[in-house]
Amino acid sequence: MEWGIRSAGILLGCLLAPLAHAQVELEPFLKRDVLETLKISPTGEYYAMTVPLEDQTILAVIRRSDKQVTSKVSAGRDSVINGVWWVSDERVVVSVAKKYGSRDQPYATGELYATNADGSARRQIFARYGLEGTELQPRAAYLIDTLPGQSRKVLVGMYALDTSSPSTRVEMLDVFSGDLDTVATAPVRNARFVVDPARRVRYAIGSGDDNISKLYHRADDDSPWTLVNDEGKSGHVEWPLGLSTDGRTAYLQVQQAQGPDAIVALDTTNGGRTQVMRDPVVDPHDIIYADDGRTPVGSFFMHEKLRTAFFDEESTTARLYRKLERSFPGSSIEITSGTRDGRLKIVHAWSDTSPGDFFLFDTTNNSADLVFSRRSWLDPAKVAPSELVTLRARDGLALHGYLTRPHGHHAAPLPMVVMPHGGPFGVFDGWEFNDEAEMLARAGYTVLRLNYRGSGNYGSAFQQAGARQWGRTMQDDVTDATRWAIEQKIADPQRICLYGASYGGYAALMGVAKEPELYRCAAGYVGVYDLELMHKQKSRSARWMGTYMDDWVGDDRARLVDVSPTALASRIQVPVFLAAGGKDEIAPQAHSERMEKALKLAGVPVEALYVRTEGHGFYAEANQRTYYTRLLDFLSRHLGGAKAK
Known about the structure:
- The protein is globular.
- Helix content is about 20%, strand content about 35%.
- Among the domains are: about 35-185, Prolyl oligopeptidase, N-terminal domain (Methylamine Dehydrogenase, Chain H); about 385-640, Rossmann fold (3-Layer(aba) Sandwich).
- It has about 650 residues and is α+β, with helices and mostly antiparallel strands.
- A hairpin with a 7-residue loop joins strand 19 and strand 20 (about 260-265).
- The protein starts with 8 loop residues before the first helix and ends in a 6-residue tail after the last helix.
- An 8-stranded mixed sheet has the order 29-30-32-31-33-34-35-36, sandwiched between helices. It has a 5-stranded antiparallel sheet with strand order 9-10-11-12-13, with no helix packed on it.
């Protein structure tokens, strides 16, 4: 095999000689965050916080006066607390998700737990299995509304996990006994609900195995459900966000034929619609609610940074956010919770150089006191910032992403790591602290994170443009972004590698197969490399997953082989590093083993790291240390940056 400049050791040494860096300290990136979420109790006496451990995330209730832990809730190994609600002055309810690996997207189990702040009456209030009729059946629940004024009851959506179940019910759940009383039944499966200020169920949105969204509305408890939007007929999805305080106006997020989603005000009495908010580039990122937690008043938008916009800039919530933004310049602000009297607020302030700090803000004297930092050991002044970049794909499509350069280096072209995100559909990189981007920047690399077509945040048409484009136009976007960085003299054309996890691992291997002269190496972490194997695995799961695979990845097995890196190993001309977990159910280790075998048969240098006890991304600190040590060593040998300390 002809290796040319990529195997010429003397010339390679000359190219890499200027890159002398101190070793990268891994400890700041391996230490767990102190917390993820913080919420204050209605009386202000307690905090509820989620705490990440090595193999799970737990809830801890802390007395505010002395910061002593008074209660904990854990759902066991691989569990994540993905929702926290103070449902009364003393009682906290949490929802649970499962996450099999650090790169796995948590999926809700539908289980609910509750505890009193002092640790008493701690129990599971909704279990995965319950009696339906006379038989034990799998089921799931999620919290809809905390019902202020009711110390024992909340509204939950409940659905049977048996696919024969026709619909989702709304239940009144007793947060002490776990007893249920049916309130409403949705006209569609897998439904989510929105209630009005009187806590009447007004909207339901869901879909069946065909993944076609339907939105329904009813005027009151006694009225029939009426269809508001059928994606199969309209060609777009509409999500209910909430209602105005008088219950007359409903706010919907509505997909558009081109460009990002809009927020629309719908008059529930006459059907009139008015667009109230739309960013020219990005979708609404998250909705901002008033103090009641259910009335929409604005939205976050993720682009150059996370910005806020409000329906009424003179509203109480808007004025408070503007005050906080002035107090924390350069940071994005989110109010996570507040006391019932409105005096105290928990403020989360974070940025691209800081994972975030939680402050207790007193609205009476405008003082903010630090409560907890997620990672106090990281100095934002020493973290490399991320800058928004915009470019055009070869077909003219606008692409956006983020560039992280080594701290203080912005002039000469530097070695670059192109890091496509996982997912791929609907997921996107944003303006936020990214562990791997910072780690690689400290090793001396510029890092490019591109939101290729198929990514979320840029409208339905942009996401749909990625359908069935694995290895095709989605991959071309990554190639075009790499060439753009070369043309802009950001990247040294002789020192560029591809690295990614999950779909990002696929894109890394597919990139060096399609463009063997563009990159010097590729690294894939818990990646998928054989699309036919992936299709077989997913098709054996739920029917909706089979539909998803056909719609988004493709159902033509011959075409899947054409864009499977395992079948294209002979085209790869650069060294490869692979890592996978033996318990990975998202991208089973078999993908990496097949890729390794194909590369060896093609005579391509390949290194592999397999950890039998890990899943979709490594959890254990020792395994993470081994992995990142190997990754930085691999990149150092081919790009010349620093190794791990």
